[in-house]
Amino acid sequence: MTERARLVLMLAPTVALLAGLFLGGLALAALRTVGIVPLAGRFDPTAEPWARALGAPDVLASIGVTLWIASAATLVATVLGLAAALLLRRAGGGRLMTLLVQFNLTVPHVVTAVGLLWLLGQSGWIARIGHGAGLIDRPADFPVLVADPAFVAVILAYVAKEVPFVAVVTLAMLAAVGTGPAETARSLGASRWQAFRHVTWPLIRPGVLAAATVVFAFVLGTYEVPAVLGPSHPKALPVLAYQMFTSNDLADRPAAIALSLVAAAIGVACLMAVRRLMSGLPTLKVAR
Amino acid sequence: MSAVDLAATKPADVAARTGRTGIRARTARIATGALIALLLLPFVPVLLWSVTRGWFYPAILPPALDLAAWGVVGSPESGIPAAVLRSVGIALGATVLSMLIGVPAGRALGLHAFPGRRWVEALVLAPLVVPPLAVAMGLHAVFLRLGLAGTATGVMIVHLIPTLPYVVLVSASVFSRFDPRVEDQARTLGASRLQVLRHVTVPMLAPGLAVAALFAFLVSWSQYGLTLLVGGGQVPTMPLILNQYVTAGRSDVAAAIALLTVLPGLVALVLSARILARASRRDGEGGR
User: Fold this and answer.
1) Strand partners, A43
2) How many domains are there within chain B?
3) pLDDT of residue B3
4) Low-confidence ranges of chain A (pLDDT < 70)
5) pLDDT value at position A281?
6) In a mutagenesis test of the A interface, which of B23, B35, B101, B220 is the best target, namely the one with the most A β-carbons within 10 Å?
7) What are phi and psi of B258, to 5 degrees?
8) Which residues in B lie closer than 8 A to residue A287 (C-beta atoms)?
9) Which structural domains are found in chain A, ordered by start?
């Protein structure tokens, strides 16, 4: 077998499956929103689903809050994740500490969301501690953090989940860069901060930003966290899209798909940003 | 502070800067510990709820030990044992299929440069960045027609969209550190293709590929949105059934389910840390 044929054989199943399921699903979704359903042989081009999606009550508010959740969660998770990685390195990162930081990475999002519901709710664990400390009297005295208009609990759930992700990526980047460049800078008289700011940070920045972009795109499309912790008005985009998809009015279905395509389009832009960022990284280049 | 630091010419505000950034390892350990405590805080009410009932505001600690929730978890009528089996079955199926399909592609990406490589990389990365809601909605009609909507098989197939890319990416990085010339050497020394696979390739790659498989299992195990959309509520996996019990107000049972849902991740984390530590020790001895 020629080298070329072997390569094609090795790649074909993956390419076929992802092209079929992922690209195929995306294409069918897009066609459905303009009135084309190949399987049913239906072909009546229309823009009605898009008009219906964008004209539905709360849609703009929904897109707005989703972007707010994703931006806030990404910013906080990236800063804390970076800090966690640097602190772990500075602390001499024992194996137990690294494992504990990684733990949240393995926890399904819905579990973290439920944990935060019981932690931050008005009769939750922190409110009870507040009562015990004499700070509040009744649950209503505790600030509304769950199902609140600012999506505080939703954002914190993503932060808890994604800080370890950013930290793990940053640690991998730091390990790839090694201590050499920073030590050289230090021996040339740079302070610890200067060595980080001007030598280490530029080297790890693409990886950290790529991780942040992945977090942002992920938050845009996750259903269960805002479903458990978000308010009923306005809804996060995935929750609104799912509700429209399963509504009794079948005409809502293509409109729901149009809404989820908005999230997918932002995701595609994120994908291109990640690809650009990663093209500068040595770790992903082919070995030979 | 080293002599080099003192001798170097620095901006005027450097004393303040080194003061701020010259964190000692002890301080870093305390800060890391505090961050870990914050990250793990949501699990405190989960743990407490799993061993009590009727735990009302403002009690900070449960009034009494009550293991009734675990009785519910174990009873067939609750549907929870079936959900455990269903989740394990779906995740195992998705893992085996993604390994069979994805590892060869990982090998191609890890070891070879070829035309169109960029496109294959983008296709593999896309499902991890682009929110999958629209994809699942697009596939829904096809799955309905094929009789896959609302079945565990359909859910398993759609889980391949996120699990396969993880397997391809992790195995690509495993193969990029693998020198295929050892296979040729074994062949030259008279080993058959099968013997090379059995005695050379698999033992060298097994640790990394085991981690890829653990990843795939966890990714499928944690899915929520895809399961909900394609399963249409008829394939209640652990994450879904957890939310059902939360909504039904059975916090104790929900907490027990949450702990069961976290368990595989914990096992996978410890296992993969062990596998990787053993592999790096062995690599060190082998002088690679």
Assistant:
1) A36
2) 2
3) 38
4) 1, 93, 280-288
5) 61
6) B35
7) -60, -45
8) 110-111, 176-177
9) 48-284 (1.10.3720.10)
